[in-house]
Amino acid sequence: MVEIIMYSTRFCPYCISADRLLNRKGVPINKIAVDHDPDMWATMEKLSGRSTVPQIFIGNYHVGGYDDLAALERNGKLDPLLGPIPGASLA
Questions:
Q1: CA-closest candidate to residue 82, choices 20, 16, 27
Q2: 3-15 per-position pLDDT tens digit
Q3: Looking at the domain assignment, is residue 88 inside a domain?
Q4: String of b and e for 29-65 (b: at least 16 CB within 10 Å)?
Q5: What is the model's pTM?
Q6: How many domains does the chain have?
């Protein structure tokens, strides 16, 4: 399974929505809180080229924020990025 990294803050509604969507998929998320960590926020900005949260990476692919993640889901492109999910039905 591919690694999912989400840079987020604790109370951001978009971060919470992204977390919920990915949890419904049954995938583990490596959440990196940037609320009180200016160095980690700077790392997030450098990697993503953006200064807003969440910033989501699936493997080496930079998804972007929640709106980008939701668009992938709506267009049927999120599941292929996530790859096989352990315990998911193949039927």
A1: 27
A2: 999 999 999 999 9
A3: no
A4: bebbebeeeeeebeebeeebeeeebbbbbbeeeebbb
A5: 0.90
A6: 1
Give the tens place of pLDDT for each residue, 36-53.
999 999 999 999 999 999
Query: Rounded to an integer, what distance in angstroms lies between the CA atom of residue 27 and that of residue 48?
Result: 21
Does any domain span residue 31? Answer: yes
Domain residues for 67? Answer: 4-82
DSSP 56-71: EEETTEEEESHHHHHH
> Is the separation of the CB atoms in 11 and 18 below 8 Å?
no
HSE of 68, CA atoms in CB hemisphere, 13 A: 16
Q: Which of 44, 52, 51 has the alpha carbon at shortest distance from 5?
A: 44
Report if residue 87 sits inside a domain.
no
CATH number of the domain where residue 40 is located: 3.40.30.10
Does 91 map to a domain? no
